[in-house]
Amino acid sequence: QVQLEESGGGLVQAGGSLRLSCAASGGTFSNYAVGWFRQPPGKAREFVAVISKGGGIKYSADSVKGRFSISRDNAKNTVYLQMNSLQPEDTAVYYCAADAAIQFHDMEYWGKGTQVTVSS
Questions:
Q1: Residues whose CB falls within 8 Å of the CB of residue 105, separated by 6 or more in sequence, listed in order
Q2: Is 61 within 8 Å of 49 (Cβ atoms)?
Q3: How confident is the model at residue 22 (pLDDT cuts 50, 70, 90)?
Q4: Closest residue by Cα to residue 80 from 7, 25, 3
């Protein structure tokens, strides 16, 4: 069973950048696809991006394409979400999640989330 912990959230002005990290422990990290999801205030959780076990396959939501990029370093048991050109609508709690296969709606293991707030 893998445990996940997000970091890197914070307050940033519109147009700024943040890099989120998702550190994994307790399992063989390279056995898992990892995704990022977010939950804006008062809204349902939504898919942001996902990366395959080896990092060769990536998908992202239309709303973040060209602005956000997902990557992973299996040697460091870490997945990253680089977020550029942030907008107020990107404000949300961001969660990383892991599963044996790429998923777009739900995954088996979840972190506790990190808050990202974008001011206008």
A1: 47
A2: yes
A3: very high
A4: 7
